[in-house]
Specification:
Blueprint lengths: L6 E5 L5 E6 L4 E4 L4 E4 L3 E7 L9 H13 L5 E7 L5 E6 L4 E7 L6 E4 L4 E5 L3 E6 L3 H6 L5 E6 L3 E7 L2 E6 L4 E4 L4 E5 L3 E6 L3 H6 L5 E6 L2 E6 L3 H10 L17 H6 L6
Antiparallel strand pairs: 1-2, 2-7, 3-6, 3-10, 4-7, 5-6, 8-13, 9-12, 9-16, 10-13, 11-12, 14-19, 15-18, 16-19, 17-18
């Protein structure tokens, strides 16, 4: 194996974290901001590029960093190593309520495609790169643009799904239609495209956007019930307006209630 062989345990229900057990000289890479805690004796190192150890040359690091810029991530990742004798643990937490999904890349043929913000951490040696869409419609209307992340290697990786996670095993030719933001990831055998919802009423009044993601098997698909964009939108919608009052929050009368209690600013 080129990736380090790590053991792990996932704790919690709504706000999960994953604990990685590192043998001597084993390591794990993670996105900045996901670190939770670690045992004494683990060394933390900021690394340049995509975290793989397949190409350690300066040019290889530059190319790896360039890939991360295209996906909107930082130039750097964080690596954690156990440099002592005996096992040590390091833990990484979910960014918001949901589930942590362990991905054994050997099961997925060495490659797994996921949304740009889904990756949490992985064994040292796993490459975190980019997956370009070759289809114009998918690139323009797919919600994730022309670029998604791809995890490559033969080790363990961990991705995060918001809310409740659904795992679908699609047979050859079987089709699943999904809201574009609800996709967590899928394996390389899945054919991914965009499909117009159709119908004037659906388009104008449906409130579900103009396009579905069309996923065709064979392969495995992971779906999330609460994309971060949807969560953020609900939080912003319920945030207090200027003046410190939320417009009708908790009131049966809504805006009319504001008139009654003296706040007539709409």
């Amino acid at each position: 194996m080129t990736a380090h062989e790590i053991d792990y345990r996932i704790y919690g229900e709504e706000m999960q974290y994953v604990e990685i057990e590192l043998d001597p000289h084993e390591g794990v890479i993670a996105e900045a901001g996901s670190f939770m805690m670690m045992d004494d004796g683990i060394k933390m190192e900021t690394i340049f590029g995509d975290g793989s150890q397949n190409d350690s040359s300066f040019l290889g690091e530059i190319l790896g960093a360039g890939k991360r810029i295209l996906t909107g991530e930082s130039l750097f990742m964080t690596a954690f190593y156990n440099n002592l004798i005996g096992k040590r643990n390091v833990s990484f937490a979910s960014p918001y309520p949901g589930k942590i999904i362990p991905i054994d890349l050997t099961v997925f043929g060495g490659k797994f495609i996921c949304q740009k913000d889904a990756f949490l951490c992985a064994a040292k040696g796993v490459s975190v790169g980019i997956e370009f869409s070759k289809k114009l419609g998918r690139g323009l209307f797919g919600g994730e643009g022309f670029i998604m992340q791809k995890l490559e290697g033969d080790g363990m990786a961990f991705v995060h799904a918001g809310g409740t996670m659904a795992k679908k095993e699609l047979l050859a030719g079987e089709v699943l239609r999904v809201d574009t933001g609800c996709i967590v990831g899928f394996d390389q055998t899945i054919d991914y495209d965009i499909e117009f919802i159709g119908g004037i009423k659906n388009t104008i009044f449906g409130g579900e956007g103009l396009f579905f993601a069309k996923l065709q098997g064979p392969g495995t698909v992971f779906i999330q019930s609460l994309p971060f964009s949807r969560l953020a939108g609900r939080v912003l919608a319920s945030a207090p307006q200027s003046g410190g009052k939320n417009r009708g929050e908790g009131s049966i009368l809504g805006g009319l209630g504001n008139l009654i209690d003296g706040d007539n600013r709409f």
